[in-house]
Structure of Metalloenzyme domain-containing protein:
Amino acid sequence: MSEIYKLKPAAIASYPMYRGLAKLVGMEVLETGTTIENEFATLKQNYPDYDFFFLHIKGTDSAGEDGDFDRKVQILEQVDKTLPELISLEPDVVVVAGDHSTPALLKGHSWHPVPVLLYSRWCRPDRVSEFSESACASSGGLGRFPATQIMTLAMANALKLIKFGA
């Protein structure tokens, strides 16, 4: 990541697979606890030392695989409550997304669209008032796009691209 994007990246993840993937793409993996509070505390503590953070929340995936809709909602609401604290650090960009959809009804990974929230001072507002697969895909300002484009969008919104597009 540092070679391609000229960033100093760090990963905050308790699940071993994501820690390993982060190492493979050149991120420094930071030690953290297993709770959302631990992970956000690790981010805040290390915020001055890095210019890119990958923070993975495993609980939503586990709750979906267990078919526990209420727990999944509770975890998402817990993450939502931490976002103002994250925004108070004044990052150039915040991206909230999933690596796949895990509907509790299906108790597993699915093919459904993944909601994406991209926040920066350069974002144009849209009419979406909820963070859900259907709302983001049908009415969101980003629409539907391949996940491979998310870093380009994030870098553009951080004004870290020389040129966007052709």
Notes: The beta strands are 9-12, 28-30, 52-55, 94-97, 116-119.
